[in-house]
Amino acid sequence: MNKLKKILPVILVIIIAALTIAFRSIPKGSSWEGYKILYVQKDIPQTTVEKILISCGISNFVDLNNQHAPIMLTKDSIEEAMLKINIQSSENRYLYDRQNYFFDGNGEYILYYIPNSEAKYLDDAIALLKKQGYNNGVDNSAPYLWMLPAVCTLLAIILCFFSKNKGFYIFTAVFPCIYIFCNAFYSSALAVIILLLCIFTISNIYQRKGALKKIISNYPVMAALVVSVISAFSSSFRSGIFYLLILSASFFAMLTVSNIKISCQKRYDFNPVFIRSAKMISPYGGKRNIIMPLLLAGSVVVIAFFALGSFNLINVKSTSGVALPGKANTQDERLPDLNAFYRWNWNVLTNPYRSLNQDSSDPDTITYPRFEVVDGLIVQKNQVMNYDQSFKDSVYNSIDNLDFNSIESVIKKQGSGFTAGYINSVAYNISLFSIIMMIMCFVMLLFIYFSAMISKGGNR
Asked: Strand, coil or helix: what is 401?
């Protein structure tokens, strides 16, 4: 039973760390590989938007106005004639379904796909559209916020040098660092900074007499810890849940370190003990180490600066609640995929040669007679067409030969296995609640800083 108590915290720590990494919540980048989506209110003429885009230097955009039947047919061929005759039949439903890629989920905006090579001109286009009173925006484009885990990790490393129990601190502080790498959000970063402070505080009075009472009675740190939990939930409910798990992991890590320490002490007849109790020790490292709170406050200032600096960018370029086509876990039935494109090509190319007596379902093999002149004689030969991988590959490659910027070329750019659905256009939304929590975190850390400045505690 005692062995289970020692092993169980280690198992739980490993499980929580694995779950945090496996179910990480990372800010998304652009919803389309190689493209950004500009969306403009539907009642604005497409020709007006096109002129603005061209005037700003964007010419290779993909929009509904420039779409044609995405197939290369010989002029005046029987395939072309049959396509024109049956253009409104159910066989050509793909031509109408593909138009959904140019509208948001509610049909309120028309979409324009801008290649990344010309995305640098988007700001000018957006400014012109807004100047004329046209409601518009672009899809999510927030990159992974590397600055946040970098600041938190650097802070954790620096605090390690000031910690009086480095082994204890390192083993417990690694989990908040894992969390921020998997949840790189501003309010989550501030929550991690507070957690690192709490771990640092505990490490400095670890194993001293009255340590538990000292920790519980340290009301500023306890209040800051509660604020950090609320701050983590302000990012998202999912981030908050995993923050609670990380808190648990840090606690289990402390138990593991304690168990290891006890096991090591049993090997010796004599073990040194601390003379001074926890009550006599400054949890912040004493006045000579007052640089620690300065580092904490500085880290918060850096994060707050970048967070506040990003508001204007986010507000200018996105409108909350706009559902745009993009990569999703499952294919939305309103957005046809390349398999529908292959089947539509098959129907167009084989429709003139199908027997009217055949079953109405689409056959995967078509045989029809062709007549050729051989040695002055007209000879009949059977032509066979198969709907197989070879046919799909030829259709896939033909996308590059289309004489217009097609939506199929955009889908092809996404690679194999791409599934399209409607996703929210806001890449990273900093809510008012998150702003309030960041301010509260900042105030709590400043309060702890001034508490350390006036602390009368001694040094070890």
From this structure: helix
Distance CA 456, CA 460 (A): 13
d(CA 295, CA 159): 9
- CA distance linking residue 444 with residue 223, whole number of Å: 8
**Of the candidates 14, 9, 6, the residue with the CA atom closest to the CA atom of residue 174:** 14
CA distances from 260 to 3, 20, 166, 189, 439 (A): 12, 25, 15, 30, 39
Beta-carbon contacts of 143 under 8 Å, excluding residues fewer than 6 positions away, are: 27, 29
Residue tagged 């007549």 (tokens) = 371
Tell me the C-alpha distance between 301 and 296, whole Å: 9
Q: What are phi and psi of 137, to 5 degrees?
A: -175, 180
Mind listing the pLDDT tens digit for each residue in 383-436? 888 999 999 999 999 999 999 999 999 999 998 888 999 887 544 444 555 566
**Cβ atoms of 256 and 13 closer than 8 Å:** yes
Q: Which of 95, 108, 303 is nearest to 191 (CA)?
A: 303
For every residue of 264-286, which 3-state class applies, written as one string?
A: HHCCCCCCCCCCCCHHHECCCCC
- C-alpha 39/C-alpha 317 separation (Å) is 10
Whether the predicted model's global pTM rises above the 0.90 cut: no
